[in-house]
Each structure stands twice: as C-alpha cells, then as structure tokens.
Amino acid sequence: MSEIELPETPETPESHKERTVGLIIATIAVVLAFVTHKGNDIHQDEILAHIDASDQYAFYQAKKERHAQLDIQLNDLQLRADTFSPTELAAATRLRDSYTSESTRLDGEGKAIQAKGDDLMEESRRLARKSSILDIGEIALQISVVLCSLTILTEQGLFVRLGMGLALAGVAVAAWAMLAPH
C-alpha cells in the first residue's frame, strides 16, 4: 500500500499568529494553575486556623464553666459556714482554700487559652484577606485566557494585548497576595 503524502502547507502569517497566541494562552494557563493551587492552600490554612481558634474558644468556655462551678461551691461553703462544727469548719476552710487556688489557676489558664484563640482567629482573618486578594489575581488570569482566545476567533490583535495586560496585572496581584504581609 502506498503512503499518502500530504502536501506541506507553507506557514502563513495567520498560523504564526495563532501559534503565538496559543503559546501565550498556554503560559497564562500554567501561571493560572499555580495561582489556583496556592489559593487553595491558603484557603485550607484559613479554615484550619479558624477551626483551631474555635477549639481554643471551646476549651476556654470549659475552663470558664469549671470556674463558675467552683464559685458556686465556694458561695455554698460560705453560706453554710455558721452551721459547721469546728472539725467541719476546718475541713471546709481547707476545701475553700483548695477551691480558691483552683479557681485562680483556671482563671489564668483561661486567659492564656483565650489569647491563643484570639491569635488564631486573627491568623484566620489574615489568611482570608490574603486569599481574597489572590482570588482577584486568579480571576484576572482567567479573564485573560478568554480574551486571548478571542484573538484566535476574531483575528483581532486587540484581544491578545488586553489579555496579556490583564494577565500581567493578575500576576502582579497574585504575587503581592503571596509575598506581602496582610
């Protein structure tokens, strides 16, 4: 069976432009994939920081409830103190001292736990701001791919220039989101 030879088509200016635009789109798509991946990582870190903060606040709440229970028991001991015999009064005094020191310890631990929860919540907010800015860069890159694609369909160079400009802006915004502290 003889081989069929296809005639070579000479490269036309239009096909060269289409290949160039295709390479631009491919490059933007690679950058877009990277920005999307980093955005997903930051969103996950934001969620984890928020969960950790919620856990700290729940732990703080448990400490506050235990502190309140000790206060109730202390009040009960004080209200019934005049009904105790001398032996019971000595035991109640030891118990009251124990409750007081435990209440003081719980109060200190609660403040430290609350401070850690506040720090984690602030970290979650910082990551949320960072991811919002990164999302803007991602959107700019997505729109730039569409604009560059319009160049192939319409054969108008304006779209590729707009797309490249928007892609550069998207890269700048994404780089700022990833590198600058927020």
Structural Rg = 33 Å
Main structural class? mainly alpha
Low-confidence stretches: none
End-to-end gap: 69 Å
How many domains in all? 1
The CATH topology comes to: Helix Hairpins
Shape, per Cα inertia axes: rod-shaped
What share of residues are in beta strands? Answer: under 5%
CATH architecture: Orthogonal Bundle
Which CATH class is shown? Mainly Alpha
Number of strands: 0
Number of helical elements:
3
What percent of the residues sit in helical stretches (DSSP H or I)? Answer: over 70%
Largest sheet: none
What is the arithmetic mean of pLDDT?
90
The secondary-structure element order is HHH
Task: Walk me through what this model shows.
The protein is mostly helical. The protein has one domain: Helix Hairpins, CATH 1.10.287. α1 runs antiparallel to α2, α1 runs parallel beside α3 and α2 runs antiparallel to α3. The protein is rod-shaped, with a radius of gyration of 33 Å. The termini are far apart.
Features:
182 residues, single chain, 3 helices, Helix Hairpins, mainly alpha, rod-shaped
Blueprint (SSEs and pairs):
Elements: H1 13-80, H2 86-154, H3 157-179
Helix pairs in contact: 1-2, 1-3, 2-3
Brief synopsis:
This protein is an all-alpha fold.
